[in-house]
Design brief:
Layout lengths: L9 H9 L26 H21 L6 H8 L3 H7 L3 H23 L6 H17 L2 H9 L8 H22 L7 H21 L6 H16 L15
Helix pairs in contact: 1-8, 1-9, 2-3, 2-5, 2-7, 3-4, 5-6, 5-8, 6-9, 6-10, 8-9, 9-10
Length: 244
């Protein structure tokens, strides 16, 4: 939780969206291959379908039983594949959880990039953002809490999280600047506020099992639209910490 008076941190807001513990989100000095990485990448559609089935099973078990209850044998059985097939791609359960987390990163970034597409009408960008975030977090919602609070991360996997932080912040800034005039100085702050507000509302709805509510969707669209539509004086300077 942010301390009152503390400046907004863009990486903290994107952490909230992607379930990344902030103490583990520092910038990496180099991109290294994680020790818990997949053994090989799927090349054919059948292999990709197998990977998706394994990751869906892992996310389901993670949400139901937590990190301690996740086993490679249990995932293989739930996915309908042999343990040998699972080990062709994942050497251990840490590799499994990293793949689940990275898939979530990709899903979130795909939504943000689509919502920041300047060739798309403004109303469509807002609905893409809201519908996309609801859809992403409706996929195994119980696993999201475990990803943030329980599951460990390999030492060498931080670079992927750092790249996500950068891309997440960039996409929100692009979305904000595309919809609000005169935000050269304040665009970053506005983007962080939007990211934090949307993430908080979506995560709370996920915890309460309300992601499918049409009222939630309507209210989130109204929230984003109202915030992006609010008139802001051109050239307004950001508020300093001393002025708070």
């Amino acid at each position: 939780m942010r301390v009152p008076g503390e400046p907004l941190d863009p990486r903290r807001e994107c952490e909230h969206i992607a379930h990344i513990p902030i103490q583990e989100s520092h910038l990496a000095t180099r991109i290294a291959a994680p020790r818990g990485a997949m053994r090989k990448a799927p090349q054919q559609a059948r292999s990709r379908a197998t990977i998706d089935a394994i990751l869906d099973a892992a996310a389901h078990i993670l949400g139901e039983r937590g990190w301690e209850g996740l086993t490679t044998n249990g995932v293989a059985e739930a996915a309908g594949v042999s343990i040998g097939s699972l080990y062709q791609y994942f050497p251990n359960k840490l590799a499994l959880i990293e793949a689940v987390r990275r898939r979530h990163f990709d899903d979130v970034l795909a939504v943000l990039h689509a919502a920041a597409n300047l060739e798309t009408p403004r109303v469509k960008r807002i609905t893409v953002l809201v519908d996309g975030m609801i859809a992403v977090h409706s996929r195994h919602p119980a696993a999201h809490r475990v990803l943030l609070e329980e599951s460990p991360r390999g030492e060498d996997s931080r670079s992927a999280h750092d790249r996500f932080d950068v891309e997440c912040t960039k996409a929100y800034e692009t979305l904000f600047r595309a919809n609000v005039r005169g935000v050269a100085e304040r665009g970053c702050v506005g983007a962080r506020v939007l990211a934090g507000a949307l993430a908080g509302a979506v995560h709370e709805a996920a915890r309460q099992g309300q992601l499918a509510s049409p009222v939630l969707r309507r209210e989130l669209i109204a929230l984003v639209d109202a915030y992006l539509s609010r008139l802001r004086p051109l050239g307004e300077k950001p508020v300093s910490r001393q002025a708070r």
